[in-house]
Amino acid sequence: MTVEKRRVVCPKCDSINAVPRSRPAEKARCGRCHALLFEGAPVELDAARLRKHIANSDVPVIVDFWAPWCGPCQAMAPIFAQAARSLEPRARFVKINVDDNPQAARDYGVQGIPALFALNRGEVAARHAGLAEANLLKGWVERLAG
Ligand code: ZN
What we know:
By secondary structure, the protein is an alpha/beta fold. About 30% of the residues lie in helices and about 25% in strands.
């Protein structure tokens, strides 16, 4: 019998872990650094790490492009954090500071923030400009992660 696995990128060291689907992913730890693969919280990444996560993740990656000076981004933050708590490990939740990573924002055609993206196996599966409700994120994860 073959064990079906999915690739999960470590939020701490970016190692690519193969996690059996039969195993509860919320308890899985990284084979290299032993960090929990899902901590129920968004992960702050830079452009290079974002590329690695998107290219190697078999779970959808939900991205919040934000900046510290942006009021609506501050309103979005607790909604996004709550979504990570309730929807991981079905998806990975990632934050990108556009002040520190302007190229990442350009790569995805981000015109204003907050900007939310659902990336699935390297492709943009959904996007939303501006503040969003929790149900939007939940709907994305349900559609993409099943
Ligand atoms: Zn690790």
